[in-house]
Design a protein that fits this description.
The complex is a heterodimer of chains A (115) and B (206). Chain A is α+β, with helices and mostly antiparallel strands. Chain A is built from five helices and five strands, in the order ββββαααβαα. In chain A, the strands form two sheets. Chain A has a three-stranded antiparallel β-sheet with strand order 1-2-3, with no helix packed on it. In chain A, strands 4-5 form a two-stranded antiparallel ribbon. Chain A starts with a strand and ends in a 9-residue tail after the last helix. Chain B is mainly β and 206 residues long. Classes of the chains: A alpha+beta (115), B mainly beta (206).
């Protein structure tokens, strides 16, 4: 396939591709910047991401863990991209709960987890 | 079937000639419709091209669309929202900003000369500025779809011209709109602006 760039009337790049079959494709070359993914989950879904450790964490009355739980509970949703989240999960982990912060933050969001 | 067999192989078809007598079942090529095939449903002759003679002919085989009939939404309140899922990796759709737009003037985003299939095509807003969005799809020189929606005032809201979107999951649903000789996708805004609309397309060239 032969490809080359030409300019449209606005001076913008247009990719021209000529296929072996003789078709001529002209596409404006202006890829949109990918929108930042919405990584919000409901509070319940966030706690579910703790897996089997969830109940132990929720029952943990230590001040530091309770602070994390309360901080999460008062929110309408949890933004997994929130910069403060790793620190909160580190507190829970330091309290002896077997959680995987990387998985909690990084796992793909299922539709049912949306707030 | 003997009449159909005269249509195959290529080269054996009859081009319609005014005044010639054809038998019921004969497949005739219409000069007025780019030699598209029509089947004669009555015995006789005529002076009207098959493409315009529905009394004696029926279209034979697949036809290229001349008009898309669908949702003719005219306000911006109930448009689909093109969420991030539409162009998530693997969704196989191309997102392209409009570049510079002159108010109320269509601009070409995609132009193909050849044969292919348009599977998805839509336009949406990049920001929340209130504007009128328009999209026009031309197939083989015929405008098959032109949609304009006023008062769109939300990011990612827009028009699906070909295909569909499942809002809750922002999933693109593909259609199959064939073109034989040319495809043209154009968009416009009622505002002179740059990169404030984007199109989402998926098509194949054959």
């Amino acid at each position: 396939m032969m490809k080359y760039i030409e300019q449209n009337e606005f001076g913008e790049d247009v990719l021209v591709a000529v296929t072996p079959g003789g078709s001529v494709i002209r596409e404006l070359v202006r890829p949109a910047i990918p929108e930042k993914e919405d990584r919000r989950v409901s509070v319940g879904a966030f706690f579910d991401r703790f897996g089997p450790a969830k109940w132990g964490i929720l029952a943990d009355m230590s001040p530091s863990v309770q602070a994390v739980i309360k901080d999460a509970s008062v929110r309408e949703f949890i933004d997994l991209d929130n910069a403060d989240l790793p620190a909160g999960l580190a507190i829970v982990q330091a309290a002896g709960h077997a959680i995987d912060p990387q998985a909690i933050i990084g796992a793909e969001i299922e539709p049912q987890e949306r707030p | 079937m003997s009449n159909l067999s005269q249509f195959f192989p290529p080269g054996s078809s009859k081009v319609w000639v005014s005044g010639t007598t054809y038998a019921a079942g004969d497949v005739i090529l219409s000069p007025a419709a780019n030699y598209a095939p029509y089947v004669r449903i009555t015995h006789g002759a005529g002076t009207t091209d098959p493409a315009s003679d529905s009394t004696n002919y029926r279209a034979y085989g697949h036809r290229i669309a001349k008009s898309l009939i669908g949702n003719d939404t005219t306000t911006g309140t109930d448009l689909p929202v093109f969420g991030t899922g539409v162009w998530r990796a693997g969704s196989d759709v191309r997102q392209t900003l409009s570049g510079a737009l002159t108010a109320n003037t269509y601009k070409t985003i995609v132009s193909v000369t050849g044969q292919g299939i348009l599977k998805f095509c839509g336009v949406a807003s990049v920001d929340a500025t209130t504007r009128t969005q328009s999209i026009r799809i031309t197939i083989d020189g015929v405008v098959v779809c032109e949609k304009s929606v006023a008062s769109v005032s939300a990011i990612n809201k827009g028009i699906v011209a070909v295909g569909g979107v499942v809002d809750s999951a922002s999933v693109a649903r593909f259609d199959r709109l064939a073109f034989n000789t040319a495809l043209l996708v154009e968009v416009k805004s009622n505002i002179t602006e740059t990169d404030k609309l984007y199109t989402i397309t998926n098509y194949e060239v054959q």
